[in-house]
Structure formats: structure tokens, C-alpha cells
Design brief:
The protein is an alpha/beta fold. It has 2 domains: 2-90 and 201-227, Rossmann fold (3-Layer(aba) Sandwich), CATH 3.40.50; 92-197, 2-Layer Sandwich (Dihydrodipicolinate Reductase, domain 2). It has 8 helices and 9 strands. It has helices at 2-8, 27-30, 42-54, 70-79, 92-108, 132-142, 202-214, 224-227, and strands at residues 36-38, 59-61, 83-86, 115-122, 150-155, 166-173, 180-186, 191-197, 220-222. The strands form 2 sheets. A 5-stranded mixed sheet has the order 5-6-4-7-8, with helices on one face. Helix 5 packs parallel to helix 6 (132-142). The two termini are 28 Å apart.
């Protein structure tokens, strides 16, 4: 889908790499491209991103689960005077949800009677839980409410009572669901929620292609807040 949308937008895909032809990740091959779009697995992402930066090619990555390595990748990007754009989700709608979530968290911090929870639903083949998008939402709440310190991941329907300073993040894996996320504030008298539902994966692919366009002739580390001007 990334390839299809890139071609629709007037670009040429010069190289496609997966686990079966990984030996083609060589500087001379990467240098054919103006940017690399990287969607792989957590255990492969750091190496792939580093290879692109060392080759002097801007890289866009949507892989999650590797962010513990982000400080060293940012340092490498600075050393190589390179360009990196990373995000847990490239959907325009999800990134608007991220921005709304931060603002809502600031407002709700004034009303401690409301308890926050997050729910995410994805297809049955998704391996990680919670999703990277759910973690971004969770971090957005914690950064904007001093009373909340951490989160705990629970399967949907789990009735575990969590401490007041902890956000429960519920996950469900079912069918072919591309992605559903909601942030819920519940009190004894009402409930307030914001949510996003993806109908297909096209929005993720489109955002990644837009990111590859955005990162041209730039230096430094960027996120979708820069891409969609949502700071």
C-alpha cells in the first residue's frame, strides 16, 4: 500500500527489501533513494535505521517497540548530520487524536473525580500489547497530569483495580481490525471519551509517504507533530 500510494503521488520506488533479500541493504543501493520508509520489527529497526543514517539517506520509521534505543539513534543522527522521522502512527486522524488527548488531559487534571483509562483493539496477528499508539496516548496523559505516574497493560475485561496514580491500558486482539483506540474519563455521574477507528490501513501508508516527502532536505529528528504541524 505504501508503494501504491507513493506511485500515485508521482514517486518511484527504487528498492523493496524484506527478510528474503536483506542482503540488498547496502549503501550503494540505499543511495538510489531520496528517503527510506521502514516498517519492520522491533528487533530489526535499530539496525535498519542506523544503516540508512550511515549511508546518508533520510529515514522514516513506523516500527514501534524499539524506543529504548532512541537516544543512541538520535546521537547517531546528529553525528551523521542525518534526518529521521519516527512515529507510532502515521494516520492523520490518529495524530489529531494525539493532540486532542494532550489538551484534554490538561483540562481533566483539574477534575480528579474522573478516572482515565485507555483501550485499544487490533487484529489477531498483532504481536505487541499495548500498541505503540496506545502508549503514545498514555504518555500524553501522564505528561499533562502530575497525579498520574505510570500505566499497566491489561487484557480487555480484566477487573483488576489499579492505584489512583496508574492508567489501565486495555487491549483486545480480534479478527482483522486495523486499529481502534479510545481514551475514557469516567466519574460517578458521567463518562467522556475521545476515540479513533481506522477503517483500513491506507491512512497509515499515506502518512508514511507524506513523511518521506516532508523529510527531504531536512536535518535532525522529527515526529508527526512536525509533519502535521500539531505542536
Amino acid at each position: 500500500m505504501v508503494e501504491e500510494l507513493a506511485i500515485e503521488r508521482g514517486h518511484e520506488v527504487v528498492l523493496k527489501i524484506d527478510v528474503d533479500n536483506k542482503n540488498r541493504i547496502r549503501p550503494e543501493n540505499l543511495k538510489q533513494a531520496d528517503a527510506v520508509i521502514e516498517f519492520t520489527m522491533p528487533d530489526a529497526a535499530k539496525e535498519n535505521i542506523a544503516f540508512c543514517l550511515n549511508a546518508g539517506v533520510p529515514v522514516v520509521t513506523g516500527t514501534t517497540g524499539w524506543y529504548a534505543e532512541l537516544p543512541s539513534i538520535k546521537e547517531l543522527c546528529a553525528q551523521k548530520n542525518g534526518a529521521l522521522l519516527y512515529a507510532s502512527n502515521f494516520s492523520i486522524g490518529v495524530n489529531i487524536l494525539f493532540a486532542l488527548n494532550k489538551k484534554l488531559a490538561q483540562w481533566m487534571a483539574q477534575f480528579p473525580d474522573y478516572k482515565v483509562s485507555i483501550e485499544e483493539i487490533h487484529h489477531a496477528k498483532k504481536l505487541d500489547a499495548p500498541s505503540g499508539t496506545a502508549l503514545t496516548l498514555t504518555e500524553g496523559v501522564i505528561q499533562n497530569n502530575d497525579e498520574l505516574k505510570e500505566w499497566v497493560c491489561l487484557p480487555d475485561g480484566d477487573k483488576t483495580i489499579v492505584p489512583d496514580d496508574t492508567i489501565p491500558v486495555y487491549f483486545k486482539r480480534i479478527g482483522e481490525v486495523p486499529g481502534y483506540h479510545e481514551v475514557v474519563y469516567t466519574s460517578n455521574i458521567d463518562r467522556l471519551l475521545i476515540s479513533h477507528e481506522a477503517f483500513n490501513r491506507k491512512g497509515f501508508a499515506l502518512g508514511a509517504v507524506m513523511a518521506a516527502e516532508f523529510i527531504q532536505n531536512k536535518k535532525g529528528v522529527f515526529t508527526t507533530e512536525d509533519l502535521f504541524q500539531l505542536k
